[in-house]
Amino acid sequence: MTETNPDPVACQPFRLTITPRQRQAPPVTLLDWIHRRPEYRPVVRSAGGAGGGRAGFSDAVIIAVVAQALLPGLFNLLQSWVDQQRTEASIRIQTGETEVELQVNGRTDSARLLAQATEALRIARAEQTGTETAG
């Protein structure tokens, strides 16, 4: 095998399901917060579609399908929103058949979140394929 082959996890798009835990409707919804950055507008949407849902919960689930290169910025936006709202969120990350869930709170570092997501996906993928991971 050669080292020029890209990591299969890095090449596949990531599907994220972000679920904020908020007690009341925030001044700025997470979706609006993320959409402040134009590169996320076409790839991040509300799972409930336009409108609908329970009062205060229209932003309850957000779906994003992004390349790995966009994950750091998306995690930074999520972390800054969680910090500002003093709330928490869960992120379910799926690539191919592999899925992991991470929790985000005011003590979570976005760089560490990215590292945790990448490592958890590698481990889950290795477990599915029956290969061993080093480390």
UniProtKB/TrEMBL annotation:
Taxonomy, superkingdom: Bacteria
InterPro entries: EACC1 (IPR045428)
Protein's name according to its UniProt entry: Uncharacterized protein
The species this protein was found in: Micromonospora musae
Organism phylogeny: Bacteria, Bacillati, Actinomycetota, Actinomycetes, Micromonosporales
